[in-house]
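User: Structure with uridine-diphosphate-N-acetylglucosamine, tokens only please.
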Amino acid sequence: MSDKTHLSDSKLHVVILAAGKGTRMHSTLPKVLHSLAGRSLLARVLDAAELLNPASIRVVVGFEAAVIQAACPEPHLHWVMQAQQLGTGHALACAVADLQQAASLPTPDDRVLVLYGDVPLISVSVLAPLILASQESALGVLSTQVENPAGYGRIIRDAAGEVVAIREHRDAAPDELRVHEINTGILVARLGDLSAWLPQLVPHNAQGELYLTDIVGLAHAEHKAITTRIEPDPLLVTGINDRGALADMERAWQLRQAQRLALSGTTIMDPRRLDIRGEVISGVDNLIDVNVVLEGRVTLGNNVIIEPNCVLRNVTLGDGVRVRAFSHLDGAELAAGVEVGPFARLRPGTQLSANSRVGNFVEIKASRIGAGSKINHLSYVGDTTMGADCNIGAGTITCNYDGANKHRTDIGDSVFVGSSSQLVAPVQIGDGATIGAGSTITHDVPAGHLAVARVRQTNRAGWQRPKKMAK
Ligand code: UD1
Ligand code: MG
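Assistant:
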């Protein structure tokens, strides 16, 4: 095993079973590529596997193998093809055959940890005790107790409490169906024993498959030591077989994440109406109102307020930032005291300096806005550098695209842009310049100048409106 976990001297090899079609998902996407809290089921299992720092990781694939491989480009993964899905026992046999041909020459004392691609919340804190507890056993099995065991393999124990077999739901006798301790599918076994047991599996069961679970009966018959660990938190070891279970797990996991955030000092108006699909780092005294979605890496300072119905993806918000209702922020950095929205859209590359304001129906992209500047209504600012204390009037547009290329707009400090102006890039507006409302600015404006670029108004006295013609 790895130096990191210090669990034993022999090596640990991880095998993740992910070849099944996931028929019960009714999907063209392989089951293990469906997402939980913004990350695919398989990616989550791989995260846990990597943290164990094992000698190798094998992923058994079959249905849509190429799609799964493309989704997991990590170069050190070993991909094992299971062309026909003949059961979990067959899947592991394919991986063990591949492992035995590996250049690293595994020994019979090496251990194999089997994970399922559809058990996404598995973690090191669940796996390490199993690996440790079963160190002296031929086989270690991870089970859990659930209220509704329908569909799962049951852990069958004798009068002394020793595990003697795992019975799949469809093969179970009525008294076995009453057992609430279920097989999570996760197990750890000596490579030498696995190599002996797997060829003995037979498809004598309701599904006509080679069940990996039957190795428990084989180990028992050989009087080999079997360790079981009962995971007290079923959510962490539950397998996803259909979209109902996926939705249930999503809600349960989201609730836990929200409660964790609340316990670390963030007020969450309704923990059932916050979704975190990534990683959130939050200071204290932040407030998150209802129906907020946080994606990717979201970093919040202190005293931040996020009003209802906002989506924030990969953003950093400084102290005292207020994001008003219905705003969409993606790839933006907001310094202390900034206020945006309601109905603001910040696209990647937006940097708002301290105390700047972005109001309703304003879109900003790849732009840096200086401290204290205000863009309060109905504007598009793209590919722009703007200084401090500017006032950008309603309906101002930076015309950054000429149909082929993007160009930059440079705005100095204390610039006033009158409403409904267009700044045709590339263009520079000097410090303190003023632009008359309704101007189309196509040339640079020097510092301190007034620029007016619109048709002069004419008033005609006694003007008669046209009359409707007789038919
Ligand atoms: C399996 C267990 C069951 C356990 C449950 C926990 C068996 C026989 N049953 O049942 O005891 O309670 O998981 O979730 O092991 N797979 C392959 N190749 C195959 C078949 C399956 O790689 O030929 C993969 C699937 O992609 C999936 C995993 O193995 O990731 C489990 O297969 P699944 O069909 O979901 O088994 P369950 O019926 O859930
Ligand atoms: Mg399953």
